[in-house]
Amino acid sequence: MSFRLAAYAVCIEDGRVLLARHVSSRGGSTWTLPGGGVEHAEDPFDAVVREVAEETGCDGVVERLLGVDSRVVPAAERAVPGGPDHQNVGVFYQVRIVGGQLRPEPNGATAESVWTPLPDVSRLRRSSLVDVGLTLARTLPPTGHVAAVQVGGLIQH
Questions:
Q1: C-alpha to C-alpha distance for 40 and 50, rounded to whole angstroms
Q2: Is the pLDDT assigned to residue 16 strictly greater than 90?
Q3: What is the DSSP string of 70-81?
Q4: CA-CA distance, 56 to 81, in Å (whole number)?
Q5: Measured between alpha carbons, how far apart are the two ends of the chain, in Å?
Q6: Rounded Cα gap, residues 125 and 19, in angstroms
Q7: pLDDT digits (tens, 9 = 90+) for 98-153
Q8: Residue 23 is part of which domain span?
Q9: pTM of whole model > 0.85?
Q10: Number of domains in the chain
Q11: Is-contact 78 124, C-beta < 8 A?
Q12: What share of the chain is helix, strand, coil (3-state, %, to 5)?
């Protein structure tokens, strides 16, 4: 089984959430939260600030830890065929954007970042991470854990 530790930013402002459109190497795209893999010896707190800047061009400030999500993607459902089952552990933070200007990620997989009205999110082809992050932000569970999000239809791994 492969493993990834990642940090994600939930940026909500004026009834909108900041989403990033990730484009796969095969050309498909999915909306997701700004964020990504934690580098070796990097603190997830620092990683989320770095990822927001890299993917969106914006400066973010962490306001609070929202929670942690762990999910296993079965090998048969992975975007890249032939790999083993994959576990992703995501650390979700509430992040406030304090500066910068939205832009595509230079030489990266994020084609664009946009402020999306919250009611419009349900109509987007999106990563399940979006639903996890929004649920954590809305409910602020004391345990920092929410139920698994079912994948299918517009909701992808």
A1: 14
A2: yes
A3: EEEE-GGG-SST
A4: 29
A5: 16
A6: 12
A7: 999 999 999 889 999 999 999 999 999 999 999 999 999 999 999 999 998 988 89
A8: 2-156
A9: yes
A10: 1
A11: no
A12: 20, 45, 35
